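Structure ticket #2291
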Amino acid sequence: MHSIRYAPVTVPESPCLRPTKSYGFACKLVLDLVHAIEVGLIRWAEKHAFAWTNFEGDMKKISFAVIALATAFAISPVAKADSFSFTVAGNGIISSGVITFAPTSTSGVDKITGISGIFTDAGAHIVNASITGLVPGSYSSSNPSTVPAASGYIWEFDNLFYSSGAAPGVNGYPAGGLFDNWGVLFTVTGGDEVNIWGNGANHSYSAGDSMGLSNGSFADSGTAVNFTATPEPPSLMLLGTGLMFMAGFMFWKSKPSIGHRHLA
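Resolution: structure written out below.
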């Protein structure tokens, strides 16, 4: 009976050893998965005295199947960014975090479903307060939600995000930007509520905050800020990329040039 052994293989340094912020973790997970599959297949082949030619052929079949699955994930209609990293800065207000959203029936118009991060308003002595959640909104630019902001005032918001940068003109303000003039409303640690809204193309965004959803007082009724947002890597696209990487790695490992041999 033959057993299968393999000479040591020198593998080129993986790009995962120099991970980027977005892809390093996912890349490492894929390599770990590849390694586990490879070890399992080799042990199975040794146990069953499987001929290398058959083993090599099956490895290629597996890699092609994985490529097909990866392609399906990568080109899926929902394989697009479903979250944005954001930053806000201006006039003592600083905030950063991640906005998550779901698409609506209108292309480029998304419903904000969650927000996380930190918020600072130096004028109100709020420093690095955690963003605790989204205040439920109407998701309608023609019918914004309202909540008390301060005595005799309300916040108006719709929690819509225009990822194409084409927010409609509402409330007498021009079109353009990632938020319309109603914007998004969220809460932070300590009970402060924060509204960020747009003022149309070629205009600064605005941010305001007040203490408490009722009977509160303004910490800032609205000040000009810079707002930027960057797409996060979409989960399905990461999965598709990872599977394609895994398939390519398995195919490469199955090539006879890696120095395998049969020993009696």
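Closing remark: Helices lie at 24-47, 52-74, 235-253.
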